[in-house]
Write a structure and sequence with these properties.
It is built from 4 helices and no strands. It has a domain of 51 residues. Helix 1 crosses helix 3 and helix 3 packs antiparallel against helix 4. The protein has 128 residues and is an all-alpha fold.
């Protein structure tokens, strides 16, 4: 009996930006789902308790809180841009190989730039 043929896998293919964006789109969707559940849990735990809110603000303003917020913000921006990219391609735009590569790089670079911009916005400043 002959062995069944083995389907090509990630080790066979040369990594391309389109592959990376596709994989990251799925991963960021999973991170956003977990993050949304975590945010909902925090909001339910607070329920108007000012002392708990102060503790949460302290955590969010710490270095690890800022790293978590930056990571979750990047996931949100990346997933949104990748979704827009897919919508445009589903509509028949940017469907050449060169356009696939260009929009993939635009998604990666744009998500990093927009995340940096969003993290620099002075959130929570009264009167600013």
């Amino acid at each position: 009996m002959r062995p069944r043929p083995i389907s090509p896998h990630l080790q066979v293919y040369r990594w391309q930006i389109q592959m990376v964006v596709s994989i990251l789109n799925r991963a960021t969707g999973a991170v956003l789902a977990v993050g949304a559940v975590a945010i909902a849990g925090v909001l339910f735990a607070l329920q108007g308790d000012a002392l708990r809110w102060t503790a949460i603000q302290q955590h969010l303003s710490s270095w690890y809180g800022l790293v978590l917020m930056a990571g979750w913000t990047w996931c949100l921006v990346f997933h949104s841009l990748a979704g827009l990219r897919h919508l445009l391609q589903d509509a028949g735009w940017f469907c050449s190989i060169d356009a696939f590569k260009a929009t993939a790089w635009t998604t990666v670079i744009g998500s990093l730039a927009l995340t940096a911009l969003l993290m620099l916005v002075p959130w929570g400043r009264a009167g600013a």
